[in-house]
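Suppose a colleague, Dr. K., hands you the sequence of a protein chain of 113 amino acids and asks what its three-dimensional shape might be. Before reaching for any lab equipment, you can write down a predicted structure in token form. Begin with the sequence itself:
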Amino acid sequence: MRVSIFPIYDRIFKLWRRRRFGLFVRVLSPERNQSLLDVGGDPGFWAQYPPILGRIDTLDLYLRDRDKNRFPEHSIQVLVGNGCALQFADQSYVAFSSTNRMCLKIIGACQFA
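The predicted structure, expressed as tokens, is then:
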């Protein structure tokens, strides 16, 4: 009999992401007139929550999902680029996040989540 850990991992991962999103909202208090850059992010992550920001740009090394109509209630743009060499002007975004940390106001206070 084969046993798989993936169903257990999937539940734990979903709970962890929900808690991390709650921390993001509490710490940042995002507003509809703000934009967020999610380095290495997945548009589907943001689409599972109510829209809390005016615009969300996800940046990755390769193009993931270009269908702008996939999440019509959200303003999510998928960008291609290198998260280690961002090409954006200072203060272009209120915040950016990565898988392991949330950084406020571009290179501001970092809080590990």
